[in-house]
Amino acid sequence: MAKIKVTKVKSAINRTQNQKRTLEALGLRKMGQVVEHENTPNILGMINKVNHLVSVEEA
């Protein structure tokens, strides 16, 4: 499967608990942190929930 790079670009301060937990589930804790994931429906669904806090690019 294809890989995607997810970068945290905005803070989780004043966000719902669900969004904070989704960011942690993606492995994003610090601003500017980049993680690689497989391009699966589960990961894409989590990214869609927090798309205003992250940027996504093909790896």
Summarize the structure.
The chain has 59 residues and is an alpha+beta fold. 32% of the residues lie in helices and 27% in strands.
CATH topology: Ribosomal Protein L30, Chain: A
Q: Which class best fits the helix and strand makeup?
A: alpha+beta
CATH architecture: 2-Layer Sandwich
Task: Say which CATH homologous superfamily is assigned.
Answer: Ribosomal protein L30/L7
Q: How many domains in all?
A: 1
Radius of gyration from CA coordinates: 11 Å
Helical amount: 25-40%
Terminal-residue CA separation: 11 Å
**What is the string of helix and strand elements?**
EHEHE
Low-confidence stretches: none
Shape: globular
Spatially, the strands of the biggest sheet line up as 2-1-3
Question: Beta fraction of the residues?
Answer: 25-35%
Question: Count of DSSP E strands?
Answer: 3
What's the average pLDDT? 97
CATH class: Alpha Beta
Largest sheet: 3 strands, antiparallel
How many individual helices?
Answer: 2
